[in-house]
Inverse folding.
């Protein structure tokens, strides 16, 4: 037992013992006060510690966040059984052992049934408070943990995305300077044109590199300009064919993806006038395809692998659709997903977090409503029993509200923890999981 809990139960024992000693004890003596304090402490510590122990054991084996339905059912069953045993034990010690008001036979004959039943309701009230508090604390911890995890995921995704985009500047500049250095020796006049065109292209790189997505139309215009530079160097050795559907122009792809793939085509294949390299850019089934005839050149050194790997990773951060690669003896093709709308790395995570929070908030309201109903039942029904027994003991009408409300309470509990919307949500999740596995 925690120190804080011990002192709370001690103060409850002192308070209840003073109340009963001052208002219900005829002979005010130290002996009677100590007996009252002993009896109050017995009730407080046994009922409080017993229910607290049950709650702690269930928290360890069946946390609210992992097994809500099972935990609720076990809580209800365990508190009913344990409180029934503890109340009968405390009442037996009180009336038979300490006060000596009844014999064992009289105690179990039914004379003290009302007192036992009343004390069981009080114990259930205490248990309901303890378990409701435990649930709220667990939910608070889980919500905080989920929020922190979502923030970390969003920050990690953004950091990764920025790292990938920052690879593009030096990569493009390095390859362009390589082309330029080749042209300076081969054709100085063409090198001057290439330098002017490269400045325009690099401006586009600087403008688009901070964007997550660009339109297919913008990317095609940039790719065509870049292809003119490549034609300046390779002349008739390279041919470019563009055949993209107009309805795809307003859709989206990751920026500089075409430029990186065009570079890969030139880098990994040889091109001559007799055997030109033919590069096709076309749309097919919501994908933007880049295909070239396969004329593999021998690599003097191992490729850094920035181009295609960069595109694949950037798409993985923005959509679940994959980049597909097809390779045969005759051609090499890369299929880039064409996206209908602009996703956002942060907003995607935030929306998921908000949806989870709203769902959790709704769940809390349902469970809180049930516990409020249970607590009200434990308070009102004993009060009605007392009124009934004081006003008309021969006409026991309290059974009707007790049974009616009890049935309603049981139905409420089943709808919240067993067969209500929670059951529907589980079935929906099961069906979706099965569909995803196909």
């Amino acid at each position: 037992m925690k120190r804080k809990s011990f002192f709370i139960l001690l103060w409850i024992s002192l308070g209840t013992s003073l109340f009963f000693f001052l208002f219900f004890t005829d002979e005010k003596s130290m002996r009677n006060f100590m007996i009252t304090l002993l009896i109050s402490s017995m009730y407080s510590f046994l009922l409080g510690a017993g229910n607290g122990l049950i709650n702690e054991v269930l928290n360890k084996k069946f946390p609210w966040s992992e097994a809500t339905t099972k935990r609720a059912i076990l809580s209800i069953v365990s508190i009913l059984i344990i409180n029934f045993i503890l109340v009968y034990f405390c009442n037996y010690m009180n009336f038979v052992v300490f006060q000596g008001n009844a014999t064992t036979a009289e105690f179990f004959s039914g004379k003290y049934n009302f007192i036992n039943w009343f004390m069981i309701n009080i114990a259930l009230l205490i248990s309901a408070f303890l378990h409701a508090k435990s649930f709220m604390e667990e939910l608070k911890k889980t919500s905080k943990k989920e929020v922190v995890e979502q923030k970390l995921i969003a920050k990690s995704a953004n950091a990764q995305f920025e790292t990938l985009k920052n690879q593009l500047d030096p990569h493009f500049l390095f390859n362009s300077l390589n082309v330029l250095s080749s042209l300076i020796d081969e054709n100085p006049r063409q090198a001057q044109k290439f330098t002017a065109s490269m400045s325009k292209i690099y401006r586009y790189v600087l403008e688009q590199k901070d964007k997550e997505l660009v339109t297919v139309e913008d990317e095609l215009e940039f790719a065509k300009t870049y292809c003119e530079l490549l034609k300046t160097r390779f002349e008739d050795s390279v041919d470019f064919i563009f055949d993209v559907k107009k309805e795809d122009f307003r859709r989206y792809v990751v920026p500089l993806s075409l430029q990186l793939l065009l570079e890969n085509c030139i880098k990994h294949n040889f091109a001559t006038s007799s055997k030109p390299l033919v590069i096709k850019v076309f749309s097919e089934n919501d994908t933007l395809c880049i295909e070239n005839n396969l004329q593999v050149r021998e690599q003097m050194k191992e490729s850094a692998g920035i181009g295609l790997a960069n595109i694949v990773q950037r798409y993985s951060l923005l959509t679940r659709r994959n980049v597909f690669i097809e390779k045969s003896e005759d051609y090499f093709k890369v299929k880039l997903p064409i996206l209908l709308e602009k996703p956002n790395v942060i907003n995607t995570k935030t929306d998921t977090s908000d949806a989870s929070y709203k769902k959790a908030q709704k769940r809390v309201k349902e469970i809180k409503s049930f516990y409020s109903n249970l607590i009200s039942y434990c308070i009102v029904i004993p009060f009605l029993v007392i009124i009934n027994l004081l006003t008309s003991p021969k006409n026991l009408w309290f059974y009707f509200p007790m049974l009616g409300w009890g049935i309603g309470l049981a139905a409420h509990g089943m709808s919240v923890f067993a067969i209500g919307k929670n059951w529907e949500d589980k079935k929906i999740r099961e069906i979706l999981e099965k569909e995803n596995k196909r």
The CA atoms of residues 51 and 127 lie 6 Å apart. Confidence is low (pLDDT under 50) at residues 345-353. Residues 113-166 form the longest helix (54 residues).
